[in-house]
Write a structure and sequence with these properties.
The complex is a heterodimer of chains A (about 260) and B (about 325). Chain A has about 260 residues and is an alpha/beta fold. Helix content of chain A is about 40%, strand content about 25%. The longest helix of chain A has 20 residues. The longest helix of chain B has 27 residues. The chains are: A alpha/beta (about 260), B mainly alpha (about 325).
Chain lengths: ~260, ~325
């Protein structure tokens, strides 16, 4: 298992957002986390990327327990993510956004930076080339030098994915990558996720769009009221009566 | 493709070359010692502003106490030279390093906090420095100020100082441009853009905020130390809250996240009071008005706005 979480719990004041959640994500597959609004999906993603510290439990990336580490340490360990409400660097160009994504792979001491050492100039050229390739891959090559705040919404979603990919993460967390997108844009995201997974990057997807989830995910975790309701293959999960009840209400289930 | 990439790489060198040409040509337009003096004051403020712009314009952190670092650099070097007989060439670097250590010590706890903590803490720091400089009269001469030994016996006169300050300014701009145009520079801008996204890419926010805070304090201290030895006399006014606000106004007016903007802001706002001597008593009002008008009519600041106009004229969308 690439990532394993045990007894994960988080509460805000008196509200328990997540409680006793155990999960395991295998390497190289697409996993989805679904559940009704307020089920704790984004809380889970924030715990797995270190934005929140868990109140209980452990998060193992391979053998290493990351629980309690700072968010930048999660990133350094190889966990990348995107955000439900966009967190693009609007003060930079699209290309610079992606170049910033390569931070984890770059080593630039302060002295070498201030003196602009030749090795740094070479590394910068390589970084730029890699970022240009990634922009091409997500279909944003023509926006490379445009300021990020001039890009349309759908492009910004893909820019965030390109930026996260630039760090070459072993685990990529996508928080509602298709939210607010039209069907054709959603299809592009669908294809992009498949390509990412095909290259061996493990993807964890939080998504409302059931069609997208059922199409790309090989493994689905269902959350409801902060607890894990079900866990398994998409088809089996979608037929689980508890899942149907959580989504449609118990009356729909009994009739 | 190769061609445009090369042009873009050269782009980062352009401001430096432009400034160097300007600085080299400027003496042709300076008729007397008084104008040289203003040019030197511009250069000294510009060095502090280039550093402050790294903090405010690029990393998005506000300091309202940078005159404190400027003043400590000035007094540190002055005291070592006048009271302890150090040569200025040793007292200046020692004072600058000392200010750097101090900035690190006060920045470390503050920069772990979010939001306006840095603005409030640096505001308090600046005020404390000004009070200490005014009251420790045994060392600093108190509110009356103190005499400062010259840089070296062979350096005298406005023209020599012009070239010293010019060289220091070019060096400051080169260092700042190198920092900005690097992974570390992008990390700083990322902190400004979205701290949570920066952290999700592995950028250690407190560490990088602290490092740019110290760098900007070093720039201010260097400008302060140079100004003390240039003027030959310093007063606590250089460390005052008013001077801190002047520096911030220069950065905002010139254009945040633009190194040339910081220099232009320093140039305009240092020169203006000398041109409009009738307004001498209203300097604070003038600063306030400049700040308000900048925010209303060109929120991006002078140089970025002009660049935008030029680019639009050339038909290149920005």
């Amino acid at each position: 298992m690439l990532l394993r979480a045990e007894n994960l719990g988080k509460h805000f004041g008196g509200v328990s957002a997540l409680q006793g959640v155990d999960l395991a994500f295998a390497q190289g597959a697409v996993h989805a986390v679904i559940g009704p609004n307020g089920a704790g999906k984004t809380t889970l993603l924030n715990l797995l990327s270190g934005v929140y510290r868990p109140d209980t439990g452990a998060i193992f990336l391979e053998a290493r327990n990351l629980a309690g580490s700072a968010p930048h340490q999660f990133a350094a360990a190889g966990i990348g993510r995107t955000f439900q409400n966009l967190q693009v660097f609007f003060n930079m160009s699209a290309l610079e956004n992606v170049m910033t994504g390569r931070w984890r792979l770059e080593r630039a001491g302060l002295a070498a930076t201030l003196a602009r050492a030749p090795s740094l100039a070479r590394a910068e050229r390589a970084c730029r080339a890699a970022a240009e390739r990634l922009l091409e891959e997500v279909g944003l090559a023509r926006w490379a030098d445009a300021r990020a705040d001039s890009l349309p919404y759908g492009a910004l979603k893909r820019l965030e994915i390109a930026r996260a990919l630039a760090a070459e993460p072993c685990l990529l967390l996508l928080d509602e990558p298709a939210a607010g997108l039209n069907p054709s844009e959603t299809r592009e995201i669908d294809e992009l996720i498949r390509r990412i997974a095909a290259r061996g990057t493990t993807v964890v997807l939080v998504e409302h769009n059931m069609k997208l989830v059922m199409g790309v995910a090989g493994h689905v975790v269902v959350l409801d009221y902060g607890r894990k309701l079900a866990d398994g293959e998409p088809r089996a999960v979608s037929q689980d009566p508890r899942v149907i009840e959580a989504y449609l209400g118990s009356e729909a289930c009994s009739t | 493709m190769d061609c445009s990439a090369a042009a873009r790489l050269n782009g980062s060198r352009k401001p430096l070359l432009l400034l160097a040409a300007l600085v080299a040509a400027l003496p042709l337009a300076l008729p007397n010692n008084y104008t040289y003096e203003i040019a030197i004051l511009v250069g000294l403020n510009a060095i502090a502003c280039v550093g402050l712009n790294l903090l405010i314009g690029y990393a998005g952190q506000i300091s309202l106490g940078h005159a404190g670092f400027f003043g400590l650099g000035a007094y540190g070097s002055a005291i070592l030279a006048a009271r302890y007989g150090w040569p200025a060439l040793a007292s200046m670097p020692a004072a600058v390093v000392g200010v750097g250590v101090l900035a690190w010590a006060i920045g470390r706890p503050i920069l772990r906090l979010k939001g306006h903590a840095l603005a409030m803490a640096t505001l308090g720091f600046g005020i404390i420095v000004a009070i200490v400089l005014a009251t420790e009269d045994r060392l600093t001469g108190g509110p009356d100020g103190m005499a400062v030994p010259p840089l070296a016996a062979f350096v005298s006169g406005e023209k020599a100082w012009y070239w010293i300050v010019a060289a220091a300014l070019i060096a400051a701009v080169a260092l700042a441009q190198n920092l900005i145009d690097s992974p570390r520079g992008r990390a700083l801008r990322a902190l400004h853009g979205s701290e949570v996204a920066a952290a999700a890419l592995g950028i250690d926010a407190p560490r990088h905020k602290l490092s740019v805070f110290v760098i900007s304090a070093l720039f201010a201290a260097a400008a302060g130390a140079l100004s003390a030895h240039y003027a030959g006399f310093i007063t606590p006014g250089k460390a005052s809250f008013l001077h801190s606000i002047e520096l911030v106004t220069m950065v905002v007016f010139g254009g945040m996240a633009s190194t040339l903007g910081a220099v232009a802001g320093a140039a305009v706002l240092t020169t203006l009071p000398h041109l409009l001597t009738v307004f001498k008593d209203y300097e604070m009002v003038l600063l306030g008005a400049v700040m308000m008008l900048t925010m209303i009519f060109m929120p991006r600041g002078l140089v970025p706005t002009l660049e935008g106009v030029l680019a639009a004229a050339r038909g290149k969308p920005r």
